[in-house]
Amino acid sequence: MKKTVPIAxxxxxxxxxxxxxxxxxxxSLKDVFKxxxxxxxxxxxxxxxxxxxxxxxxAVRHFNTATAENDLKWQRIHPQLSEYNWxxxxxxxxxxxxxxxxxxxHCLVWHSQVPRSVFRDDTGNNLTRDALLARMEEHIRTxxxxxxGRIQGWDVxxxxxxxxGTLRNSSWLQIIGEGSEDKRYDYIECAFRWxxxxxxxxxxxxxxxxxxxxxxxxxxxVALVKHLKSKGLRIDGVGIQLHGxxxxxxxxxxxxxxxxxxxxxxxxxxTELDIRxxxxxxxxxDVSQVSRDSxxxxxxxxxxxxxxxxxxxxxxxxxxxxxxxxxTRVTFWGVYDKTSWIGGSPLLFDRNCQPKExxxxxxxxxxxx
Length: 369
Ligand code: 9MR
Description:
Helix content: 25-40%
Distance between the termini: 50 Å
Bound molecules: ligand 9MR
């Protein structure tokens, strides 16, 4: 039996929830950028299962698209050859649907967060090319197939490039590419082909970090898109992750990435936006080189840091708005600072879910256009 809740009661509940966080009368980001691009965030398991209601309130109020931060990664959803763990991803998709968000699946093929056993046979030896392709096909058809019509965009291949634009020497490349120049794109081609077959209506993306800081890497992504298109494969967009810092990326670097990717005819998306407040240490997006403890930053809340953070966000959003014809989505990698993978103060909402100076700077950038 369906329980009915009076509409007025719901409205009061909703306003109450919105007022418990988010600085109340502040504008909703998805409304502010309504005419420009979708606005979203990476959602973690606590948020989608009701264990972090404040984060959920923020997400519902500000986002019209969401990405699963971890629960669709191979290791989480397919931990053993014959075992799938659907529950957390189901919760993510249900949460997005309830809140009418454009749902992003992250990610199908990645060198990281994939069990080593995927690449080995029973005796511990590397699989053959055909055997690994068969495993990849089964994974993609099963995961994409389960959410057919419900996950609207997929990061099909994640982080396949080196800084110099060549292909990363991952187990995917080593085994399926067989060291042959002619076969180097094969695993990527197959991933896009099978994802499309499993859900012909889903958008398909290539996603990577550092495209805005390394022209060579960005050129590698452009070459990859052109190659897939030359094979007649569907690729809708490229995700510039944009894990930035207080002093990077430069406007020139980001603009080069946006314009050169858009010139290939794909949509450009900012898929994992955050601004690291730490000024020292590792800068990349490789999580194996980052620990939350070593990146916690005692000066993150200092007014000077927050001002720099606001300025960098304003600069980035002004540029994104300039290129809004090519940019379809901007997704933050987390919801508020406590949920960030990186420590410090990298997002628009602080550890108490309150909007920071950077939030208002982003809103102002939209009003200025
Ligand atoms: O934010 C994610 C963190 O919680 C995970 O431990 C980590 C490893 O799975 O991945 C983080 O997200 C990464 C994303 O999936 C791909 N680009 C880089 C992101 C930050 O490391």
